[in-house]
């Protein structure tokens, strides 16, 4: 039976017994985020959405990184379940040292798909020091931030649906793990394709075919590891859709509705059973689990809006005209309706539930 893992510990439950993971708080920015913000050349300049037209509809790395630690927690949980070549998991003691020595003979080739501002890439560099590491994203702004944070890693702009890992190369400089990374020549198969919270943006009809195509580019024993948010039924998402389309009380005449009523942000995700059946003919193993994170947001419902401005609100904000008044009205209506559902805790914070589905497949 497919097992559900709620943490890195040995606790496993059947899939139908899903329960919440331990909650998180909103701590100060991590060292990675602080370093990036301090070195960001745009941090004191014009906001991203009002820059040159090429970037006016781009994503904002600064906005995304406001919740760096919360967003990166799932990265750590996914990386912890990535097996080393041959299906081994990291351990301690002489066996681990021997495994590390074996790996050093041929640096692992790793590609971070949908790398964003490099927060997931940094975790991979720390977990696999000396690996030949590359990051791929479609957002110029995200890639610019990633290059600032991790100058020793190669980053490339590409469309995930057509990206060919075998055609890419990697930077021979040092990765963030502090160890010299050897460049992988074009044409070499990757050992790990890692995708944190990016595949959900693909249309449902393209998603599993893309995963299978990427799996096919791996070496035998190589790994595809990805996680996708499973949150479309969460209140914040249903409220967002209702406000955007004018279905929420008092929003039918909103000036934003004509622009947003036909926006389709993204498709839902496949069931674990469908993912397993698609992958298992080509995989030596398929590991699936589902985790619900409880994130404590100190800023109340305003923080929910700020969180979603970095991700889930993007399709809606991009569809609006360049009229700040309409944008403000839309966001204010959204926040008002959020406040009706997300009640403050005794300290004024709110708690959001964030379900995520994780998949790790090892190629035959």
UniProtKB/TrEMBL annotation:
SUPFAM superfamilies (alphabetical): S-adenosyl-L-methionine-dependent methyltransferases
Family matches, as Pfam families: Methyltransf_12 (PF08242)
Organism superkingdom: Eukaryota
Any Gene Ontology biological process: methylation
Alphabetized GO MF terms: trans-aconitate 2-methyltransferase activity
Swiss-Prot/TrEMBL keywords: Methyltransferase, Transferase
Record domain Methyltransferase type: where: 111-224
Protein name per the record: Trans-aconitate 2-methyltransferase
Source organism of the structure: Niveomyces insectorum RCEF 264
């Amino acid at each position: 039976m497919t097992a559900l893992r709620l943490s890195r510990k040995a606790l496993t439950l059947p899939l139908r017994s899903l329960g919440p993971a331990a909650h998180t708080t909103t701590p100060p920015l991590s060292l990675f985020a602080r370093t990036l913000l301090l070195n960001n050349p745009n941090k004191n300049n014009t906001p991203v959405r009002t820059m040159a037209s090429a970037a006016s509809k781009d994503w904002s790395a600064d906005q995304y990184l406001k919740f760096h630690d919360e967003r990166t927690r799932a990265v750590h949980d996914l990386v912890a379940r990535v097996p080393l070549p041959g299906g081994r998991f990291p351990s301690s003691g002489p066996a681990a040292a021997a495994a590390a020595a074996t790996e050093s003979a041929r640096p692992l080739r790793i590609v971070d798909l949908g790398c964003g501002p490099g927060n997931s890439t940094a975790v991979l560099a720390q977990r696999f020091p000396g690996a030949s590491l590359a990051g791929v994203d479609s957002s110029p702004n995200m890639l610019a931030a990633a290059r600032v944070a991790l100058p020793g890693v190669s980053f490339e702009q590409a469309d995930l649906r057509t990206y060919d890992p075998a055609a890419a190369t990697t930077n021979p400089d040092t990765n963030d793990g502090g160890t010299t990374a050897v460049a992988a020549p074009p044409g070499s198969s990757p050992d790990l394709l890692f995708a944190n919270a990016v595949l959900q943006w693909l249309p449902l009809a393209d998603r599993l075919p893309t995963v299978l195509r990427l799996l096919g580019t791996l070496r035998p024993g190589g790994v595809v590891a990805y996680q996708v948010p499973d949150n479309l039924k969460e209140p914040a998402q249903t409220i967002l859709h209702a406000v955007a389309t004018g279905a929420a009380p008092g929003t039918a005449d909103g000036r934003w509705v004509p622009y947003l009523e036909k926006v389709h942000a993204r498709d839902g995700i496949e069931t674990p059973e469908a993912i397993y059946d698609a992958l298992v003919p080509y995989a030596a193993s398929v590991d699936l689990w589902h985790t619900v994170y409880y994130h404590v947001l100190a800023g109340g419902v305003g923080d929910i809006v700020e969180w979603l401005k970095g991700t889930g609100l993007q399709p809606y904000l991009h569809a609006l005209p360049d009229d700040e008044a309409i944008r403000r009205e839309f966001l204010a209506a959204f926040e008002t309706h959020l406040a009706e559902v997300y009640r403050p805790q005794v300290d004024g914070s709110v708690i959001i539930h964030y379900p995520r589905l994780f998949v790790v497949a090892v190629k035959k």
